[in-house]
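Justification of computing resources. Each target in the renewal requires a structure prediction run like the one illustrated here; the chain below, 120 residues long, is used simply to show the kind of job we budget for.
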Amino acid sequence: EKASPGTCDAFVSHSWHDDPAAKWNALQEWRGEFTQEHGLEPCVWLDKCCIDQNSIELDLRCLPVFLHSCRKMVVFCGVTYLKRLWCIMEIFTFIHMCRGLDSIEFKMVLREGLEDEDAA
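Resulting structure tokens:
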């Protein structure tokens, strides 16, 4: 569903290299917290759904527009997130657009059975 600028609740930032099941669990946890606080489902910008997979390079040039359209950024930080240049670029661009750190929420992506190792 298309959203008008500024009506998207969150830009979802994640590493494609982190564990998919752990990311899904973290996303569902965040979704539950959002729904409980706001009384409605969140509208999110998620790259797989919002970027034309047949024209990725063209859409990625619009990153500042996509980020500006979102009220906040939710970073799903797994073991590879901080090692991925594109992930860091998303955060840098979001902050550079005069958004404060208070507009970024971090959620840890912890693999089942490896939670202590991932949180270290």
